[in-house]
Input
Amino acid sequence: MNMELSGRRKPTPEPSHRTPEADTEQALSVGIGLNAAIVAVAENEPVALVVRGDADSIGATDILPFGPFNPVEHRTLEGGLRAWVHDQTGLELGYAEQLYTFADRGRHTEPADATPHVVSIGYLALTQAMGHHGLTNGVWRSWYQYFPWEDWRRGRPEIIAHEIEPRLKAWAEKPTSHKAAQSSIARADRVRICFGLDGMAWDEEKVLERFEMLYEAGLADEAARDGHSSAREWTDRPKLGLPMQSDHRRILATAINRTRAKIKYRPVVFELMPDEFTLYELQKTVEAILGPHLHKQNFRRLVEGAGLVEPTGEVKTRTGGRPAKLFRFRREVLLERPAPGVRVSAPPSRN
Amino acid sequence: MNMELSGRRKPTPEPSHRTPEADTEQALSVGIGLNAAIVAVAENEPVALVVRGDADSIGATDILPFGPFNPVEHRTLEGGLRAWVHDQTGLELGYAEQLYTFADRGRHTEPADATPHVVSIGYLALTQAMGHHGLTNGVWRSWYQYFPWEDWRRGRPEIIAHEIEPRLKAWAEKPTSHKAAQSSIARADRVRICFGLDGMAWDEEKVLERFEMLYEAGLADEAARDGHSSAREWTDRPKLGLPMQSDHRRILATAINRTRAKIKYRPVVFELMPDEFTLYELQKTVEAILGPHLHKQNFRRLVEGAGLVEPTGEVKTRTGGRPAKLFRFRREVLLERPAPGVRVSAPPSRN
DNA sequence: CCCTATATACTCTAAGCGAGTATATAGAAT
DNA sequence: ATTCTATATACTCGCTTAGAGTATATAGGG
Output
């Protein structure tokens, strides 16, 4: 998460010297939601598991598997999450890690003190799309349907130049409150950095920052749904990816962000792979997640050189060319070094 | 956070096909605690801000500033945290970021369904120890008092070879449940990797993993306080750092972990520095956090080369040698590139 | 039998990093 | 005043590795 730019905030003024105990009663009226962004790669497409939400004002929106945390039933947060996911989709999660806890969104639609407030704890789970023994509910959907501007596999997505860039630049020009103006970085600069405009490099790890910016600018459907004034000011708000219910798209953005970052320094790709795979399949999986194409020869050298894989001795035929050696993940690397990820060669800049 | 090794867990069995809504009532009986690990560097010593807790069975233990999240009063989690910190210490936080949300500790001391369960959201705040305008309560304490095994500034801490290594190895030998045995990595290997034993490299970013292991092995005071059986089996449990109340030491471990990791890839050291500083002071601050000594010439070259700092034109005299140029943080780097951290040259291995 | 797509192997080059050496300038000690 | 010492600053060297290019082997399809 890149919180640097938003880290410095003035604290909210508060009545002084209240003791922690005095507030316990009120604090209890907070529900805790567990949300799972379950990620896989199917046919070179990165996908997330979603279930269909109820129809609302903007139509049926997708939701991530989720449920409330109940400490009486669930010993741990992660245990509760696994239970909910299993109940709602039939899936038994493998690898899972906590992402972030959100609390400050969606308030605008609710009366300030009527509806119970909900804190969302987001989780990232990695699994194989194939071999899901018994998926009873939900569908795998490409994560680029929710974030089309993140898909750089066929070059720079046109939606950036056509829809996003002009509107964000207009938004950056708009008069802003003096509070925001005194922020260390001006809006126009934030826009350029976030979306790699005006010759700035595209940073594939700014997924969350980009979505937050679109939300803040009122360009995400969710901003309109939540009743943000910034959204009302657009007369021609374009469709920028599929929206999701509540703050689930934000959680998915966080999940993509984390996946892209982590794949580079920890061997987590293998959670997405079958037990045996070719190096080409491995590369395609990494590319599905990170975007641009990697240099094949270097990719192979780096992966093998890092001791991440070992040949099984078998080959996979019918690959369209010379039969490919099959490899498996060397779990022993975890014992040998501060286990590395898939070092990726920086692709040629495509801006 | 390194969750790889613990990520694969069997999900808790649950009654099937409960809908999220059905549990809302019960889920509400969860309190949310906001906890701040406030970090600074004072006289080359990394310090955290603690307040003194009440006396309990093992004496007065330190606590981090904390308080419950009350959504009616606080618009955001971070806002609530800032308010509590200000109330309890008089400090106005600058940089702050969320760390992790904990829920699965301390249950053993409580009756399973009587006391309200608490979920702790940990935050990391970075600030300058000096120039704290109006610290009304609390003291700055070296974080190595809580984690003496993390202090490698004067070589390998003796506490590892004398106290930790023999006991953890004994613990690794002990018969373990078949559930733990089937875990992908055996205990003995986890111990070696965690603490850099038997010639393995010391990884300064495994702070949390190490504390968790000591807790699991029953070697942390908190494990005894929480009534863990693993703690009762030691007849000569040594004092391994100062304990803290509740799970605060775990949160502090997470904070140290994050600080050490982040300082390398984001320019967060400067949150700990005064506006103007010499490169030597900057290096000492980095070393206070990361531990071992860095190569001075390379450090300077990397810091200046990355465009992180610019000379103010002034010099600082009375440094004991040639007067040192004063530098300031170049905030513009944030506009130029995916702003880097302080690239550190790996120090000569000291194992 | 040729074409093509893939797999696999080898080589070259530039950049960066770890590490060493040398010189300048202040305060402190004599 | 001179010497010593700690710091600051500048320059150099060599190894590793990442990025990129070229060449060869083996399958299926027309």
